[in-house]
C-alpha cells in the first residue's frame, strides 16, 4: 500500500506500452474507413474501400485460398498432433526425447530458411508449388503447437480412468472414444484453433511456395504493398486482424498462454 | 497417479504391440516433418555446394564458390554484421521496454486485471505479423500520424523522415517482438517470491539494490530466453526491412530472399541460408543451459 505512487507510475507505463502495441493497428483500421485516398485528416468516414474490396476478385480469391489452406492444415495437424501427444503420454520409449526435441526446429529456425528450403526441395523433387505445397509446409509449422498444447492438457489425465473402462469391458477403441477423447476435447480444440491461426497468418512459407495467380491473403497483401498499395489493403487487413484477434481470444478460453497464472 | 504409473508402465513397455502403437501414433506426424523440414534442409545443404540448379539441361558441378564468396567479399561480411547488429539492437530495445512492463504485470497488478492485461499484451504477437508491420507505414510516413501528432504537440516540429530508414525497421521489429520479451520476463518474474523482496527491503536495501541484487539475477533466464527468441528471427527477417526500410533495408535476410525470388541464384541463396542457420545454431547451443532453465 505504501508504494501507491510507484504503482500508479507502473500502470501509466503499462498503458503506454499498450498504446505502442495497438496504435498502429487502430490507425490502419481507422484509415480503412477514410474515403480519402491520401489519408487526409480529419477522417472522412465511409465504407468506400470495403465496397471496392467486395469487387476485388484477386483479393477475394486469395482470401478463399487462405481459408481453404487453413482448414485443411487444421484438420491434418490436429489429428496427427493429437495422435503423437497420446503416444508421448501413454508410452515410454527410447526415442521419445529425440522425437520431442525434433519439434523444436520448425518453430525455432527462421521461416526464411525453412521457406526457401521447402521451395528448393519441392521444386526439385517434383512436388511443385501451389496450395498443396503450402498445406505441406503449414502443417509442419502447426504440428509442434498442436502437440505442445494437447500434451499440456493430457498431462492432467488419470490413466486409471482408462484402466477402469477396460476392466468394465470396453474395447481399446471404446476407451479412446468414450474416455480419452472427451477428456482431451478442450486441448484438442485449442490445438486446432492454434493450427488455424498459425496457417491463416502464415506469410513467409506461403510466399516462397506460391505461384503467380495462386496465393494466399498475406502473400497478396505483401505483393500489393510492394507495388504501391491501394487503400483496399487497409480494409482487408483490418478484417484479417479483427478475425485473427477474435480467434485468439477464443483460444485463450481453452488454453492459458504462458502457463498457470 | 504415481502408484498407477509404477504398476502399469513396466507391463506396457514389454508388450510387443506397443511398438506398433507408438509407430502408428507418432509415425504420420514425424513422416510429415521429415518430408517438410528434414529433407528440404538436406536438399538445401546439397544445393549450397553446386554451381547451378541440378536440373536436366543445366550445366552444374560441385563447388565451394558459394561459401568462398561469402568469406572473401566485404559485401557479405558487412551484411552479416548489419544483420547481427539489427538483432542485437532489437533484442536490447525489447528488454528496455518490455522488462519494466513485465515487472508491473507480475508484481503490482493482481487478479482478473492481470489476466486481461496479460492477454492484451500477448494477442498482437499471435496476429498477422505482416499486417502489423504494414500498419507502421501509416504512422511513420512523411506527414503521417506520428509527424502530425508531434506537430500538434509542439507546433512547428517539422518532419522526422523516419520512413525507409534503419530506425523504422528497428521500430517495426521491436513492435513485432516486444510481446515475446514481456512473456518470458513475466514468467520468470512471477516465480520470484515476494517475501524475498520484502525481506531485503525490511533490512534496508534500497529499491535499486533490490533490483540489481535480487530481481535482475533471478529473472536472468527469462531475459536471456526472450533475447534469444527475438534475436534469431530478427537476423532472418526480410519482410520487415523491405516494407519499412526501403533502400535502407538491405540485410542478410533480404539478400537471401533476392536469390530465390528475383536473382534466381538458388545455390548462393542456399549457402547464405546455411550460414544464417549456422549462426542460429551457435546461438542456441551457447544459450542452451539458460534456455532449458527458462522453460
Automatic annotation (TrEMBL), chain A:
Q: What is its main location?
A: membrane
Q: Does the keyword Cell membrane apply?
A: yes
Q: Where are the transmembrane segments?
A: 12-33, 67-89, 101-124, 130-154, 175-198, 235-255
- Residues annotated as domain ABC transmembrane type-1: 63-251
Pfam families noted in UniProt: BPD_transp_1
Q: Does the keyword tRNA-binding apply?
A: no
**Gene Ontology biological-process annotations:** transmembrane transport
Q: Which UniProt keywords apply?
A: Cell membrane, Membrane, Transmembrane, Transmembrane helix, Transport
Topology in membrane: Multi-pass membrane protein
Q: Where is it located?
A: Cell membrane
Which GO cellular component terms, listed alphabetically, does the Swiss-Prot or TrEMBL entry include? plasma membrane
Family (UniProt): Belongs to the binding-protein-dependent transport system permease family. CysTW subfamily.
Q: What is this protein called?
A: ABC transporter permease
TrEMBL record, chain B:
Q: Which Pfam families match?
A: BPD_transp_1
The record's section on InterPro entries has: MetI-like, MetI-like_sf
Q: Which CDD domains match?
A: TM_PBP2 (cd06261)
Instruction: Identify the keywords attached in UniProt to this record, alphabetized.
Output: Cell membrane, Membrane, Transmembrane, Transmembrane helix, Transport
Q: Name one GO biological process term.
A: transmembrane transport
* Membrane topology designation: Multi-pass membrane protein
- Tell me the compartments it is located in: Cell membrane
Any one GO cellular component localisation term in the record: plasma membrane
- Give the transmembrane region(s): 22-47, 86-105, 117-140, 214-235, 266-287
Instruction: Family membership, please give it.
Output: Belongs to the binding-protein-dependent transport system permease family. CysTW subfamily.
Q: PANTHER family, alphabetically?
A: INNER MEMBRANE ABC TRANSPORTER PERMEASE PROTEIN YDCU-RELATED (PTHR42929:SF1), INNER MEMBRANE ABC TRANSPORTER PERMEASE PROTEIN YDCU-RELATED-RELATED (PTHR42929)
Q: What is this protein called?
A: ABC transporter permease
Q: Which organism is it from?
A: Salinicola corii
